[in-house]
Amino acid sequence: MYSHFELARKYIHYYCTAMNGKGHGMHSPFVFQFILNVLHNGQGYAPPPFLEQQRKKLQRDKRMLHIEDFGAGSRTAATKHRTVAQLAATAVKPRKYSQMLHRLVRYYQPNTIVELGTSLGLTAAYLATANTKGTVYTIEGSGAVQQVANEGWQDAGIANIQSSVGNFNQELPKLLSTLKSVDLAYFDGNHRYAPTMEYFHLILPHATTDSIFVFDDIHWSAEMERAWAEIQQHPWVRCTVDLFFMGFVFFKTSFHEKQHFTVRF
Predict the structure, then answer these.
(1) Of 115, 120, 111, which Cα lies nearest the Cα of 51?
(2) Backbone φ/ψ region at 130: left (φ over 0), alpha (ψ -120 to 50), beta
(3) Which pLDDT does position 195 carry in this prediction?
(4) Closest Cα partner for 29 from 252, 264, 265?
(5) Where would I find the H helices in 109-221?
(6) Is the dihedral of CA 39, 42, 47, 49 positive or negative?
(7) Which of 28, 29, 75, 252 is deepest in the core (most CB within 10 A)?
(8) Nearest of 56, 162, 155, 149 to residue 114 by alpha carbon
(9) pLDDT tens digit string along 141-176?
(10) How far apart are CA 93 and CA 22, in angstroms?
(11) Going along the chain, which residue ranges are E strands?
(12) Is there a contact between 201 and 231 (Cβ–Cβ < 8 Å)?
């Protein structure tokens, strides 16, 4: 994990060198539409207001959770103690990125969505409400955390989320054995090189040319930057978009040559 100083230095470099976030000068029609409709809401998509109400509720929740944390694919779990409010402050995606993921699903309408790292369930809710005809399959390492997520979905009446608890190494293969394809995969459960690459290769055979993979915190550490660089070079990957805190992977064969974009967001 990079220090705060190193991460800030990298972010400043990203911000100063990234392509204009409004899409000016973008020669790829596909990526231009991604910028217009996903990053900047050209379609006017608005997530349900109750999702941000749920965020505020979680931020006020002082319940103490006994969390099983499997870490980087470890075989045994360590127990940590945190309040729901502490998790909401540190482990839940900010509103800006949550709403952007909602727009991603609204615009592309993926039907089969796999999320690695449920946390308190808010991101899954943003994904699920963007396409109520699809299903979000989400995996969480801690049963206590998943229980809070389940409560939130039930209170909101969200019925198209299926969750499981356990080590990703065990739960992901079981889930994938039931799925023909994965339209959208969101990797947000383990920020190290080896498990990131393992999960990428596990889901990859289920990708189609229209699938989208989203990786969280691609510049969080040297390990994650190494994983991101290798993913970009995979022969099935045709296009990537780097937003610094998130990376997007596309497999569309209409990209006859690999194209990698860094876009300010």
Answers:
(1) 120
(2) alpha
(3) 96
(4) 252
(5) 122-130, 143-156, 168-176, 193-203
(6) positive
(7) 28
(8) 162
(9) 999 999 999 999 999 999 999 999 999 999 999 999
(10) 22
(11) 64-69, 78-83, 112-116, 135-140, 161-165, 184-187, 212-216, 239-242, 246-250, 259-262
(12) no
Residue 37, both tokens:
């409709």
Average pLDDT per block of 10 residues along the chain, 265 residues long: 94 93 84 96 95 96 84 46 92 95 98 97 98 98 95 97 96 97 95 96 98 97 97 97 98 94 95
Cβ proximity of 149 and 124 under 8 Å: yes
For the chain, percent of residues with pLDDT exceeding 70: 96
Please state, in angstroms and rounded to a whole number, the distance separating the CA atoms of residues 138 and 114. 6
| Angle at alpha carbon of residue 148, lines to 145 and 149, rounded to 5° | 90
Length of the chain: 265
Give the Cα separation of 227 and 187 in Å (integer): 12
Rg, Å, the chain Cα set: 18
Structure tokens at 164: 């499981």
- If we measure between CA atoms, which residue out of 241, 265, 263 comes closest to residue 252? 241
Contacts of 233 (CB under 8 A, 6+ apart): none
What is the rounded distance in angstroms from the CA atom of residue 56 to the CA atom of residue 112?
A: 28
> Sign of torsion, CA 80 127 222 226?
positive
Amino acid 71: pLDDT: 52
